């Protein structure tokens, strides 16, 4: 049995579907599962209908595109709720924190110390060492009061 003969067999598609499903579990990314579904459907169609390898590959490619598109649409319509929605939004996480002015805020602009870094800040005038609260973030500039 050659590799080409094995690829024409419906079992190869079903094994590929299982391997992709396992890979999705080991490396979660909500992507491989859709390709796995396309491989499984291709295997089932190859089992039911006597189609050659070129048509199987075309069917797999078409189903992969359709499955990924459908998956993206489904996740767009049903977003996964996060326990920490600000996880990747560092500036939004700073809102409400009290920070120290390290460069006097004069004319509405200055710099404040947040943890071990210094950020640009806008707000009412404040002297060096004053404690101010972050009320908003606009890009990398913090609005303080």
Question: What can you see in these coordinates?
Answer:
This protein has 145 residues and is α+β, with helices and mostly antiparallel strands. The chain is 48% helix and 23% strand. The protein has helices at residues 3-8, 10-26, 32-48, 53-77, 90-93, and strands at residues 98-106, 109-114, 117-123, 131-138, 141-144. It has a 5-stranded mixed β-barrel with strand order 1-2-3-5-4. It is rod-shaped. The protein starts with a helix and ends with a strand. Residues 92-145 form the NfeD-like C-terminal domain. GO terms for molecular function: peptidase activity.
Class based on secondary structure composition and strand pairing: alpha+beta
Number of helices: 5
Strand content: 15-25%
Order of helices and strands: HHHHHEEEEE
GO molecular function, one term: peptidase activity
Main location: membrane
InterPro entries: Membrane_assoc_protease, NA-bd_OB-fold, NfeD-like_C
Protein name: Membrane protein implicated in regulation of membrane protease activity
